[in-house]
From TrEMBL:
Gene3D superfamilies cross-referenced by the UniProt entry: Periplasmic binding protein-like II
Signal sequence extent: 1-36
Chain ranges of the Solute-binding protein family 3/N-terminal domain: 48-268
PANTHER family in the record: ARGININE-BINDING EXTRACELLULAR PROTEIN ARTP, MEMBRANE-BOUND LYTIC MUREIN TRANSGLYCOSYLASE F
Keyword Signal found: yes
Organism expressing this protein natively: Paraburkholderia phenazinium
Pfam families: SBP_bac_3
Keyword list, A-Z: Signal
Full protein name: Amino acid ABC transporter substrate-binding protein, PAAT family
Matches recorded under InterPro entries: Solute-binding_3/MltF_N
CDD domains in alphabetical order: PBP2_polar_AA
Length: 287
């Protein structure tokens, strides 16, 4: 029997290789596309979105003493996000020390967790481009500490949460000796125990604390300017563009309708100028 020529075999092998390569490429592209849609698809398939929230105290999140149900600004955002997506909500408490890992490991679909935009965070996670607030850090200290400005922190111990975006400017710009704790409650406890001379956390929480909580009557926020005010956003995993786009539409409508402003005021917050400007911007645009 006549054997096939080397050239014929080579052409056949080449055609097979091209076909196999094309199929593998198609599978890879299909997997990539599926990955981009997987979170949003999963949310609708199970009719539920799982959101990681921080419950470290008012106004962002806490537990109702009577019902033990979560309440606060973060909670309102998560519940309304689910409502506008037409699904149920499950909230999982997270800490600054584990919130990124919870999202990356798929334990939550999104984060609404007092997590402002930084270059480092944007390299590993994604977010809808429109923020729901602009939030900076406030400094809380004893009234008799002698601290009157950010510069007075030089060489002094300052408490923050692990993973805080305030760590870098405190250390590099103001020369503070930063001590990081698991979360805001632990940091504030360390402040009261004189382990640090001041603590820096999201401004709305600390301003509400000294204004309304008698346990903090000996403490003050001596500096009116906030540390690095930054966009506060909903975080999602990298590459999940459909989820990102769906959330963006929700955030834009929060601004357009004025719902966001009303919700902040309901929780004892003062909307920033950035939020007021975004409300005016989207209100002037058709939905």
């Amino acid at each position: 029997m006549k054997q096939p020529s080397y050239r014929l075999w080579l052409r056949t092998f080449a055609r097979g290789t091209v076909i196999r390569t094309t199929l593998l490429l198609a599978v890879a592209l299909g997997a990539s596309a599926a990955h981009a849609d997987s979170t949003l698809d999963r949310i609708h398939e199970r009719h539920k979105i799982v959101v990681g929230v921080i419950l470290s105290g008012p106004p962002f999140g806490s537990l109702d003493p009577a019902t033990q149900k979560p309440l606060g600004f973060n909670v309102d955002l998560a519940e309304n996000l689910a409502k506008r997506l037409g699904v149920d909500i499950e909230m999982i408490p997270v800490q600054p020390s584990n919130r990124v890992q919870f999202l990356q490991q798929g334990k939550v679909d999104a984060l609404i967790a007092n997590m402002e935009v930084t270059e480092e965070r944007a390299q590993i996670l994604a977010y809808p481009p429109t923020p729901f607030e602009e939030i900076g850090g406030a400094l809380i200290t004893r009234k008799d500490s002698g601290i009157k400005s950010w510069n007075d922190l030089r060489g002094k111990a300052v408490c923050v949460s692990q993973g805080s975006n305030y760590t870098k400017p405190l250390a590099e710009q103001y020369g503070a000796q930063v001590k990081a704790f698991r979360g805001q409650p632990e940091s504030l406890l360390a402040l009261r125990g004189n382990n640090c001379v001041a603590a820096v956390h999201v401004a709305p929480t600390l301003r509400l604390l000294v204004a309304r909580n008698p346990d903090w009557k000996d403490y003050t926020i001596p500096v009116s300017s906030d540390l690095i005010p930054s966009p506060s956003v909903i975080w999602v995993r990298k590459g999940e563009t459909d989820t990102q786009n769906a959330f963006e539409k929700v955030v834009e409508d929060w601004h357009r309708s004025g719902w966001l402003i009303d919700t902040e005021r309901k929780n004892g917050m003062q909307p920033s100028q950035a939020v007021l400007d975004l409300h005016a911007k989207f209100k002037a645009q058709p939905a």
